[in-house]
Each structure stands twice: as C-alpha cells, then as structure tokens.
Specification:
Largest sheet: 2 strands, antiparallel
Radius of gyration: 22 Å
Oligomer: single chain
Helix content: over 70%
Structural class: mainly alpha
Order of helices and strands: HHEEHHHHHHHHHHHHHHHHH
Number of helices: 19
Shape: globular
Number of strands: 2
C-alpha cells in the first residue's frame, strides 16, 4: 500500500480504530495498553505530518473513498457522489495543531491520571476525540463534517463527565451535551435544507451550486448557530467555562483543540461553501461576536476565585480574538485590502498560539490541583517555593495569553490589532482592553497561588507532567522569538487557502 496516497484516510482511521481497541488492550495489561497507545499516537502523528508535507509542497490533497483510483473524484455522471477528503493548507494546519495537542496531552496523562480513576476510559475518549478532529479537518463532504462533529461531541462530553464521583463534572458534561446537541441539530437541519434543494453533499459541488436563495441563507444561519455553539462564542458560551473547568487537565487541552477545529469548520463554510455570495453583513456578524466574546469573557475572568474556571474564561476570550481576526478578513474579502489579509493571518496564527498558551496554563492548573489538592485561590499560596517549574510555566503561559512580548501571543495579537484598527479603531481598542484585563487577572492569580508564605508543603509534580508542560513552554518561546518563520511557512498558506484559495479548492476537487 502506498502510504503517500492513502495517508489522509489512514490519519483518521488509525486513531479511530486504535481508540476502540484500547480498552481491549487495557484488559490484557496496563503496559500493553500504554504500548498500543504509543504506537497509535506515533503512527497517527507520522501520517498527519506526511499529509502536511504533501499539502505544503505539492498542493491540495484529494482522496476519494471507494474509487478505483483515490484521486479520481468524479463519478461517470460528472459530479462527486462518493465520500471525498480534501486537505488544503488550512486543513493540514488544523491537523498539525490537533496532533501536537494530543501528543502533549497523552504524555501528561501518563502520570496525571490514576489507574483506579478511569485512566483507560480517559485515554480512549481522548484518542476518539483526536480522530474526530482530524476527520473534521480533512473531510470534503458536508454530511461527514456533521458525522465527525458528532464524534467529537460525544468524546468531549465523555471526557468532561466521566469522573462521576465528582459533583460538578457530570453537571458540566450535561450542560455541554445539551448545547452540543442543539448545535448538532441546527447543523443537520441545514444539511437537510441544502440537500433537498441541490441533491448534493460535497462541499465543492455545493459551493458551485449555491444561488443565494432564501433556503441557502436559512441554512447558513443554522450552520452559523450550530458551529458557534460548539465554538463557545458569547452569548452561547455557557458550557465552555464549566467544561474546561471540570474536565481533567489533559482532556482540557484536547477540548481547546476541538473548539479550534470547530472554528475551522465555521471558516470553511463561510469562505469556501458560501464564499461566492460575498455578504459583508455575515463578516460584521462574526466581527461583532468576536468583540463581544473577548470582552465579556475577560470581564467574567476578573471575578473568578477557582483557578481552573479563571483560565477557562481566559480560553473563551481567545476565541473572540480568533473570530475578530478572521471576521475582519471575511468582511473585506470581496475588495481584498492588505489589512484584511493581515487580520486573517493573525486570527489563524492565534489558533496555534492559543493552543500552546492555554494548554500550558491548563496543564499547570492540573499540576497545582494534583500537588495542593485544590484550586481555590483563597486556600492556595506560596506554591512557588516548592513548585518552581510549575509556577514558571504558569507565569509564562499567562504572559503569552495577555500578549506580552516577546512571547507568541504578542505576535498574533499585534496582527489582529493592526488589521482590526484599519477596519474600525473601536475594535482594536476593545481587543487591547481585553488583553489588559487578562494581564491583571492572571497577575492576581499568580500572586494568589504561587507567591506569599507557604501554606503547606505540596506533593512533587511528576517528571512526565513537567516534560509535557516544558514542551508547550518551548513552543511559546519559539513562536514568540521566531514568528516570521512560522507565519511564512505555515500560517500564510493556511490564510491564503481562505483569502484567495476558494477556486483552487473547487478545481482540485471538481477538476473544473
């Protein structure tokens, strides 16, 4: 079998099948389970990297399931009827983010999770979530985008609520499940409307057929509503702080990546599926929700005393920055001014930066909870005397999240500030205000948790957990010191896939 040709489907199939086999290996022994997970993770990472290399060097990779030749996308009738994977630079970029987060999360979970507290179940759900994220990033079919949307929803809810011995975990999972279910129903109804009108499910084929009718616009409204619920944008964000605050630390970083993959699906629909309609009003809607999200979430973080929920609201605020940057690009995509592309690049770059900074903060919170037995800032203090590495990692992540130079958050936020300022100075002012609020909030949190007199001697943090946090910390520093390298080789092709790559995508799939 030619791995180069079949890498897109194998990148989804390996973690999917690996997740279902993981409990069986767990029954045979912990060491066999861990070895199996290591093999699945290594194989999946290699396949995702192979897909990314192909995309960035030779262009969009198209794979057709059930065809005699995987690159043959059209049926004899001249239109696609099979399930098609279509991976462009943005899809490959999202696959790399999901893979990076998954690898760090599994390394952290090796010592963070206790065997008697459902370790096998947590690892299984994490692997299934990883497979679903890759499926969403790689699929070129609208219905299969919904299928992987649901796969990630089920796995994410399980990760949030599987610790049934806690009081708030199942409650948070139920709230998440309700919002995910409503969002999924919106998504499915939109697919039904589009299929009823055009008799097609392939994204590229539908993009050629859309006329801007009332049905098309109703479907777009449903798709926007469903995906914004999954993303956690204000005012449908109420599930996100609970889910992020109650899920185990290694699972939260996967949930953050899942949110970003849902953002990818939103951007794919707005730019690729509906890009031919070019409605600036939709762009302004995305911009408005982005500004509202970053400001409201930052204000809510101010009053939090639980360290996990504080970081959770910080994570929600970053969704606003991504929506703002990409929304500015969507608003101006018809005229294509330079500042629109700059903001778009900043929003996409911030997806990677957010995964690293927020992931680092959540892993540090998990280490604090494991070492000190709690997360309430009123009962913490002086942890920096004993948890020097953890305190350093938390401080680094906090500064990156607030956009302090020379860390990675500054590079992407500066691009968003500049692009949004040229669209409206008010937007840039709101974004800067939110960053200042976050800086104040996290400085207070750092002082409350790590500084001051010792309130007791915490347990030491295991080395594998420190290594996982150290890997993210290195990423934060590298992207902050060398942003041009990443922007030039990874972010710019991903942004161009939305900005000018719509016709290239359609021609790669349809051949015309």
């Amino acid at each position: 079998m030619n791995l180069t040709v079949h890498a897109p489907i194998l990148a989804i199939a390996v973690p999917l099948l690996g997740a279902f086999a993981l409990p069986l290996w767990g029954k045979l022994g912990r060491s066999l389970r861990d070895l199996w997970l290591l093999l699945v993770a290594a194989a999946t990472a290699a396949l995702v990297a192979l897909v990314a290399v192909q995309v960035y060097t030779t262009g969009i990779q198209v794979y057709t399931l059930g065809a005699a030749w995987p690159r043959d996308t059209l049926a004899p009738g001249g239109f696609p009827i099979r399930i098609i994977l279509a991976v462009d630079a943005l899809g490959a970029f999202m696959g790399l983010i999901a893979t990076l987060v998954a690898l760090v999360g599994f390394a952290y979970a090796a010592r963070y999770l206790a065997e008697e507290e459902g370790k096998t179940l947590a690892l299984t759900l994490g692997t299934l979530l990883w497979a679903g994220m890759l499926g969403m990033a790689f699929t070129g079919d609208l219905f299969n985008l919904f299928v992987f949307f649901e796969v990630t929803s089920i796995a994410a809810c399980g990760l949030v609520g599987y610790r049934t011995w806690t009081s708030r975990g199942p409650e948070a999972a139920f709230k998440t499940m309700v919002l995910y279910t409503v969002g999924g129903l919106f998504f499915l109804l939109a697919i039904a409307l589009l299929y009823g009108e055009y008799g097609a499910l392939n994204l590229a084929h539908l993009a050629r057929l859309l006329r801007g009718s009332t049905v098309d616009r109703v479907a777009l409204a449903l798709l926007l509503g469903g995906l914004l619920m999954k993303v956690g944008a204000v005012p449908v964000h109420m599930w996100a702080p609970d889910a992020y605050g109650e899920a185990p630390a290694h699972g939260v970083v996967l949930l953050v990546a899942n949110t970003q993959v849902s953002l990818y699906a939103l951007f794919r629909i707005l730019f690729t599926l509906y890009g031919g309609l070019s409605d600036p009003g939709v762009g302004w809607l995305v911009v408005g929700m982005g500004a509202l999200t970053l400001l409201v979430a930052s204000l809510m973080a101010v009053v939090q005393m639980d360290l996990g929920r504080l970081v959770a609201f910080g994570a929600v605020s970053q969704i606003g920055f991504m929506l703002l940057g990409v929304g500015v690009g969507l608003t101006t995509v018809a005229s294509r001014p330079g500042y629109g592309l700059l903001a778009l690049r900043g929003g996409i770059f911030h997806m990677l930066n957010d995964a690293l900074a927020i992931g680092l903060l959540f892993l540090a919170v998990g280490a604090v909870e494991r070492a000190a037995g709690g997360r309430n800032l009123g009962s913490l203090g002086g942890l920096g005397h004993n948890l020097k590495w953890t305190s350093g990692f938390f401080f680094l992540g906090a500064l990156a999240l607030a956009g302090i130079p020379p860390l990675n958050g500054f590079a992407s936020k500066l691009m968003i500030y500049q692009g949004s300022f040229l669209l409206s100075p008010i937007l840039s002012a709101l974004a800067i205000l939110a960053s200042i609020l976050l800086l104040a909030v996290f400085v207070r949190a750092f002082q409350g948790a790590f500084l001051g007199p010792r309130l007791g001697k915490p347990d030491p943090v295991p080395v594998p957990m420190l290594i996982a946090m150290g890997a993210l910390a290195l990423g934060v520093l590298f992207l902050g010191l060398f942003p041009d390298l990443v922007v030039r080789h990874l972010v710019t092709p991903a942004a161009d896939a939305l900005w000018t790559g719509r016709e290239v995508y359609l021609q790669a799939v349809l051949g015309r």
